[in-house]
């Protein structure tokens, strides 16, 4: 469904963000792009959403090349945007309509979906996300978790086949985080292809996604199943997703590999 | 269970057919062009930082020497009255740019476009004998008789004069030289060093902090605007009417204003918790090295020589 061939991207012509990325994401797959800060996760998602274009390499969606020229074609833009939705890390930049309801109606109206059907989509989505009571509220009057739900809802009402989530659980309270994980799994089971970028290893474990690991050299270091990647301590150490940690228990000093995920264990 | 609450419309496939490439193209809207300009601003800031941290002749000089050089040479450019001297100054600056490993082609492209607009085009009417008497080189219009109108006198032959052309040339060269000197200093000095160097002129620290914060905020602002634009783009399927575009911009301005205000409050709180009371103190700049004194003296002598020629 999504194919990247030798993708490279440079910011300001000379800061590398991605180098020689080859990647394939299948229909209905859960795919997690993981990496430390600044490895190019967001850049990769923005390329997959046709928002920016690679300096080198090719990106194909359903066999059709997505590039600057094709994204100026009205027919292709409709075809592509209808199928690929993007949930930004910062919900504030994504929400631009006066109220929550307007926000959810924006997508269907863009797709020229009639008033009643658009309204039904908005209300069904609000019901699923438990935000019906917020429908008349301006988006700047929402909490962080509520904003995230509205941002997701605003993309869902367009019914895309592929959902791109940029650092979806960042800054959320545990309850909202749990809800979001459950939602992503439910959407995937409903047939949606999920692509998330994150450095949260527990999220990768919960989603049991196929994982692509980006290194600090902006290369795709390894691709594999969640179990395969999460058990490769050397790899996770090399890409700075876990680190060695020294601390004391009473009068004993321990040195062990540490992350906020699974590896809080002592060798001696 | 959430799985049972998934709306039925989410289980359907999209409505649109595979793309038909002949349906027409999107023109680049003014909104996108504006955002591109903002992105270019970030790029300019980045290039300034990139060149100023490279190893080169001017990069190695103390910022205070460079600021004094800038002022001295800009005054020098304004004092000279011969085209030959201006060309000589221009060549000196060009040579200094080469020594500092700047991208001279890119820089001169910008310098010449500024000079063309603010030098040649603005000053061009003054080349006519309508404003200044002189030897007419070529005639543009011949009248049957000269006219006197209020304080103006319109000659029989209206044309471009030698003196007028010389004036336009001087004006353009002065702008080119002043901009080259400014770009040379700006592109070889990191912004924080420029700010500290301004202390030489006894500018209050508070003013310097305000300039620093504003400069930093410009980049944050440009980044936020670019993100907002991308977020909108990711949900756009058709061209939006201009009115809708203007509405979106108005809404975003309000949001940015709110964010700016809350950011200002947070920065102030961060300053408070790090000991800010009512006065600001910036760390002193390092002492001038012997090399800086020597280079400063050499540049001063070069300036005096150009003044004398």
Q: What is the CATH domain class of chain A?
A: Alpha Beta
Gyration radius of chain B, to the nearest Å?
28 Å
Largest interface: A-B, 61 and 49 residues
Strand order of the largest sheet of chain B: 1-4
Low-confidence parts of chain B, pLDDT < 50 over ≥5 residues? Answer: none
Assign a percent range to the helix content of chain B: 55-70%
Number of strands of chain B: 4
How do the helices and strands follow one another from N- to C-terminus of chain B? HHHHEEEEHHHHH
Kindly identify the CATH topology of chain A. Rossmann fold
Number of domains of chain A: 1
Number of strands of chain A: 12
So what's the overall shape of chain A?
globular
The fraction of residues in strands of chain B falls at 5-15%
CATH architecture of chain A: 3-Layer(aba) Sandwich
| Whole-number mean pLDDT of chain B | 81
Which structural class is indicated by helix and strand composition of chain B? mainly alpha
Distance between the termini of chain B: 88 Å
Notes on the protein architecture:
The complex is a heterodimer of chains A (268) and B (309). Chain A contains ten helices and twelve strands. By secondary structure, chain A is an alpha/beta fold. Chain A has one domain: P-loop containing nucleotide triphosphate hydrolases (Rossmann fold). In chain A, the strands form three sheets. In chain A, strands 6-7-8-3-9-10 form a six-stranded mixed sheet, sandwiched between helices. A four-stranded antiparallel sheet of chain A has the order 2-1-4-5, with helices on one face. Chain A has a two-stranded antiparallel sheet with strand order 11-12. In chain A, strand 7, helix 7 (174-189) and strand 8 form a beta-alpha-beta unit. Chain A is globular. The N and C termini of chain A lie far apart (47 Å). The model of chain A is unreliable at 263-268 (pLDDT under 50). In chain B, strands 1-4 form a two-stranded antiparallel sheet. Chain B has a two-stranded antiparallel ribbon with strand order 2-3.
């Amino acid at each position: 469904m999504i194919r990247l061939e030798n993708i490279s991207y440079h910011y300001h012509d000379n800061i590398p963000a991605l180098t020689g990325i080859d990647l394939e994401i299948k229909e209905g797959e859960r795919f997690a792009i993981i990496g430390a800060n600044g490895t190019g996760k967001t850049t990769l998602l923005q390329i997959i959403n046709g928002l920016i274009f690679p300096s080198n390499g090719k990106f194909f969606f359903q066999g059709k090349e997505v590039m600057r020229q094709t994204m100026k074609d009205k027919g292709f833009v409709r075809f592509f945007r209808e199928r690929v939705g993007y949930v930004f890390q910062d919900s504030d930049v994504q929400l631009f309509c006066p109220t929550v309801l307007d926000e959810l109606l924006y997508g269907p109206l863009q797709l020229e979906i009639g008033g009643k059907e658009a309204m039904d989509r908005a209300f069904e989505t609000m019901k699923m996300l438990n935000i019906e009571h917020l429908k008349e509220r301006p988006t700047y009057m929402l909490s962080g978790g509520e904003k995230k739900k509205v941002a997701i809802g605003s993309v869902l009402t367009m019914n895309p086949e592929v959902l791109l989530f940029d650092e979806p659980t960042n800054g959320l309270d545990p309850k909202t985080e749990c809800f979001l994980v459950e939602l992503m799994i439910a959407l995937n089971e409903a047939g949606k292809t999920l692509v998330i970028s994150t450095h949260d290893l527990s999220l990768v474990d919960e989603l049991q996604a196929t994982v692509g690991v980006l290194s600090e050299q902006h290369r795709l270091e390894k691709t594999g199943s969640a179990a395969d990647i999460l058990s490769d301590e050397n790899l996770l150490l090399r890409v700075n997703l876990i680190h060695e940690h020294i601390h004391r228990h009473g009068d004993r000093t321990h040195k062990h590999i540490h992350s906020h995920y699974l590896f809080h264990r002592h060798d001696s | 269970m959430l799985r049972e609450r998934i709306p039925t419309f989410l289980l359907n496939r999209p409505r649109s057919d595979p793309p038909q490439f002949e349906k027409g193209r999107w023109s680049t809207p003014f909104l996108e062009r504006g955002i591109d300009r903002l992105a270019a601003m970030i790029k300019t800031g980045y290039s300034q930082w990139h060149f100023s941290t490279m190893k080169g002749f001017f990069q190695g000089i103390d910022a205070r020497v460079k600021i004094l050089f800038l002022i001295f040479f800009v005054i020098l450019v304004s004092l000279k009255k011969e085209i030959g001297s201006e060309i000589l100054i221009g060549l000196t600056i060009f040579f200094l740019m080469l020594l500092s490993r700047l991208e001279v082609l890119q820089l001169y492209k910008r310098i010449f476009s500024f000079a063309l607009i603010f030098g040649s085009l603005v000053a061009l009417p003054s080349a006519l004998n309508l404003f200044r008497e002189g030897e007419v080189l070529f005639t543009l219009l011949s009248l049957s008789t000269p006219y006197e109108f209020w304080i103006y006198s319109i000659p029989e032959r209206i044309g471009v004069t030698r003196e007028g052309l010389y004036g336009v040339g001087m004006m353009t060269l002065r702008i080119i030289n002043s901009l080259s000197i400014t770009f040379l200093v700006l592109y070889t000095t990191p912004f924080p060093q420029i700010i500290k160097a301004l202390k030489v002129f006894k500018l209050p620290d508070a003013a310097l902090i305000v300039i620093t914060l504003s400069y930093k905020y410009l980049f944050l602002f440009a980044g936020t605007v670019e993100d907002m634009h991308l977020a909108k783009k990711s949900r756009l399927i058709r061209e939006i009417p201009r009115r809708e575009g203007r509405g979106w911009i108005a809404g975003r301005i309000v949001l940015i204003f709110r964010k700016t205000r809350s950011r200002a409050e947070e920065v102030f709180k961060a300053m408070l918790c790090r000991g800010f009371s009512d006065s600001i103190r910036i760390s002193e700049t390092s002492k001038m090295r012997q090399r800086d004194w020597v280079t400063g003296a050499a540049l001063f002598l070069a300036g005096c020589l150009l003044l004398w020629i």
